[in-house]
Amino acid sequence: MDYYKCPTHDLYSETQRRSLPPLSRNREQLNEDLVQDDIDRGSDATTIRTVDRSTLLPQTTRSAHAGEIGNTIVASQLVNEKIVYWTLNTFFPTLHLFFESGRSCVIDGGRLSDAFVGLDPALRFKLTDCAHEEEGRVSNSILPERFSDSGIGLVIQEAVVSQRTSIAVKNSQQWAPRDPPQFRIVTEMHTVIGLRLRGMNKMAFIWARTKAPSGGRLWGDIRLTLSDKCLEPSSYNNLQLNIIMPGATAIVLYPRKEGSTFDKEYYLKTHMPLAMKHWGPHGMKSYAVSELGADGPYSISSVMEFDSQEAVGKAMQDPGTKEIMDDVKNFTNSEPILVHGSIIGTS
């Protein structure tokens, strides 16, 4: 946030609240101190208090995609779910979590225009740094190999709905414009979702805000939805086909089980070129293969990009698909899982 236009006494009071050393009463220096603290501590710096409201049901969102993401639920329904994949949407203010159970949830902050969803530093560290992430895909772990079978994963141990009070910089004369505007540091209350994953000693929260106050508000309310139908098993010969939603991306996951084997060299040099040979003419444009963390339920993921959802359907119906399926036994004894969904954001 830009604090420079606020009165000096507001800036000084805020530095005192944050226990920052008051090196100067100069407005420029106080502004720099607060901005740097925002960078260093993220949402921890702007949070005054967070109060548990677990019995509350977050308000229904008014976003255009509300009907697509399921019904609002209480946070406790997420306890003991294990996160295997997550995405932070670029276009819509949503965090999408996929679970080992086959269910998924969307944490949505779409009540404000131009809102984005953010994570407290401790939760972002756990999702992104402890379990290496690329474009929302958990692809590695910092666990050394000798602890690879420890069973530690992204298990949700606590989940709550809370009411948070945060600071905001706003024009105090919105209804009686002045020249120049009079900005003040004020407080706003907003709904957040708290998660404590295995290995975290306290709760961390997911929140929504805008880059600039929208409709008089900077911070938005979060809601939580859960879908039991995100993965709907059907079958295609020996392939378990799980359809997420219409789209142009297909992801193949190979489960990690006791006694399972996987020939990575054969997969990269023979199987994937075979898939490109048969599915390329139908709109398969590229693929990326990742070796996943040793503590997760899947060992390998392969992400394939198609021109459209129709292209995915045509590829599955191609006679060459049987050859691709029959080839699976040549590199693994695990049954692959295929999910495909829409590309709704890139960066």
Automatic annotation (TrEMBL):
Matches recorded under InterPro entries: Dimeric_a/b-barrel, EthD_dom
GO molecular function, one term: oxidoreductase activity
Domain of life assignment: Eukaryota
Family label: Belongs to the tpcK family.
Official protein name in the record: EthD domain-containing protein
